[in-house]
Amino acid sequence: MRKQWSVNKQKIGSLDQEVNALKSLNHQNIIRLYDFFEDSHCIYLVTEYIAGESLLTYMKRKPTKRCNLELSREIFKQILNGITFCHSKGFAHRDIKLENILVTKQENKLKTVFEAPLVKIIDFGF
């Protein structure tokens, strides 16, 4: 993120507190945040690497631009699981949209009858 958005030390301290709190969010459907650092121009967030694409891109690649009902339910269930976990820890995402949901190529550990991607919530509004 550009440093101009958080120019003073108080805001940097606040970001440090928020990052430390978000580091505690350990859930299959939430991207892991490990740390942040800064240089004279930007603040950088260090997150888990995810091999995948946004839900928006995933949907655009579908020939019909939509998923079947079973896959839609599985994706939505994973999003809700991640949001529920955030809320249970006192966090609100405040910007859930297709661009902030990653559909990964990683193995989904949930047992389903069909092959469903693993979904991760990203971008907590920094």
UniProtKB/TrEMBL annotation:
Coiled coil: none
Alphabetized UniProt keyword annotations: ATP-binding, Kinase, Nucleotide-binding, Transferase
A single MF term (Gene Ontology): protein serine/threonine kinase activity
Biological processes, Gene Ontology terms: autophagosome assembly; regulation of autophagy
Stretches that traverse the bilayer: none
Record Gene3D superfamilies: Transferase(Phosphotransferase) domain 1
Domain Protein kinase: 1-126
Pfam families: Pkinase
GO cellular component labels: autophagosome; cytosol; membrane; phagophore assembly site
Name the record gives this protein: Protein kinase domain-containing protein
